[in-house]
Write a structure and sequence with these properties.
This protein has about 475 residues and is mainly alpha-helical. It has 17 helices and two strands.
Length: about 475
């Protein structure tokens, strides 16, 4: 027991060291992160905190223009928040003139300030979760430090969920810590820190993925020999019921933050689980838990779509018109889809050329594919679904202005963050030759025990279902 507690303390120290190092690095850029959409979310949050719509717009403009003075003039379009040669005073004047113009042209209602026409601002009105999350931070610390601290909390929460997801899937402590560090080092950490809804949506997505792992791994098991639980979440008594709550709760909150991404994640998970259950049937294994997970995600996807429709929030047709009419400033196209698919081809051909020129993501995806081939872990199909959700989200917005950015496709980066750490662990020893089942003294271990003395836990409750190794220290 003292040895187990010592290892737990070492794991906690590792988590804290990674978090402190990340927070220290973020102190180098407390401001300068605002994008053109930040002022929309900020004005919404300030309105929720009790400010008048006019005052909320004024403060949002002041923050956005001040942040723009600290932004680098990079070639990345969506991060280039400062017009070349524009001073802070000129920025404030330009945005105030825009507010006055759209107020005169009918945008007089809503929680967000009238920075554009009412139809475009309705997109942000349909995302109340992120502004609501910001309210306590803004109330206590104001816009600059409040947005920074909110981003830090979001980033660290997502990274810890990645750690828990890997540990619940049966990886070692060092692999779990590697997943936490990767999440913060990759664009997932960058997007989480930006004052936009994408980071909070991403963090809630990691909660959903953790819930999926708990759904599929079965009830928490205990090592009969030592009396110790088989994982971090197992020690907390987490099992399928907890997993279902996390999946349903995470997607429900994502619906309020960014419902389109919640819908795509639910659909991707349901599709992957259905395909997985079909594969299990071909192998004459029981697909019960996987089918139940598919049913839950499919039902939640239907609920998300129905909820957005009933609330009158912008849907796919509106998104296509937004892209093709420059934020509804030109007349709608009678049939936007032919031109939309032309834009898809233009965007993805440019995106592939970009990846060939700077093959960081392809290299990480190649390592992820290697992990997929070398390891048999419940986390891999779930990570594939997350990556698919990122690709689908980007496909819904084939805007060349987003070519150099990461925020729309950010869920794709969860795949390397979850898959690559698996390579740090040895393959499961229960599939190794017979001598791996003996201890150093040559004594035969009990049937079903690995070389680490831990019995693998089934994904479901019935014999023959997919199994995966439990955590190793």
């Amino acid at each position: 027991m003292p040895n187990i507690r010592r290892k737990q303390h070492l794991g906690l120290i590792g988590v804290l060291l990674i978090a402190v190092a990340f927070a220290g690095l973020q102190l180098t850029a407390v401001t300068g992160r605002a994008s053109p959409d930040t002022k929309n979310y900020l004005s919404y949050a300030l309105s929720l905190s009790g400010e008048s719509r006019q005052e909320a717009g004024r403060r949002a403009i002041a923050y956005s223009c001040a942040s723009g003075q600290h932004a680098s003039l990079s070639p990345v379009p969506w991060t280039n928040r400062k017009a070349v040669g524009e001073s802070e005073e000129q920025c404030v004047r330009r945005l105030n003139d825009s507010v006055a113009y759209w107020t005169r042209h009918g945008n007089t209602e809503g929680m967000t300030a009238p920075f554009a026409n009412q139809r475009f601002m309705a997109i942000f009105e349909a995302r109340p979760g992120y502004p609501l999350f910001l309210v306590p931070f803004l109330t206590v610390l104001g816009p600059t430090w409040g947005l920074w601290l909110a981003g830090l909390v979001i980033a660290l929460a997502g990274s810890v969920c990645v750690l828990f997801t890997l540990r619940a899937a049966g990886v070692s402590r060092r692999a779990g810590l590697a997943g936490q560090a990767l999440y913060l080092a990759l664009p997932t950490g960058t997007v989480a820190m930006n004052p936009l809804s994408d980071g909070l949506s991403l963090a809630l997505g990691t909660v959903v993925l953790l819930g999926c792992v708990l759904l599929l791994r079965g009830r928490p098991r205990t090592d009969v020999e030592s009396g110790t639980s088989t994982g971090v979440t197992a020690r907390a008594g987490a099992g399928p019921r907890t997993g279902a709550v996390l999946v349903a709760g995470g997607l429900t909150l994502m619906f309020l933050v960014r419902y389109s991404q919640a819908l795509l994640l639910a659909v991707a998970l349901a599709a992957v689980f259905l395909a997985w259950s079909g594969l299990l049937r071909l192998k004459r294994r029981q697909p019960g838990p996987v089918l139940r997970a598919a049913g839950l995600c499919g039902a939640l996807a239907a609920g998300i779509y129905a909820g957005a429709h009933l609330l009158g929030w912008p849907m796919g047709q509106d998104s296509a018109q937004d892209l093709l009419t420059h934020h509804y400033q030109r007349p709608d196209l009678p049939n936007p889809w032919p031109e939309f698919f032309v834009q898809e081809g233009v965007f993805w051909s440019a995106w592939l050329r970009r990846q060939a020129a700077q093959p960081i993501l392809p290299a990480l995806l190649a390592l992820s594919a290697w992990a997929l081939l070398r390891r048999r872990s419940v986390v891999l199909p779930i990570a594939l679904a997350a990556g698919a959700a990122g690709l689908l989200n980007q496909a819904g917005h084939p805007n060349l202005g987003q070519l150099y950015g990461y925020r729309l496709i950010v869920f794709l980066w969860l795949l390397p963050a979850l898959a690559i750490p698996l390579l740090l662990d040895r393959p499961p020893t229960d599939t190794a030759p017979d001598d791996a089942s003996r201890d150093p003294a040559g004594a035969k271990k009990p049937a079903g025990m690995t070389a680490h003395g831990v019995a693998p836990a089934p994904v479901g409750d019935t014999p023959g279902e997919v199994r995966h190794p439990m955590p190793r220290s």
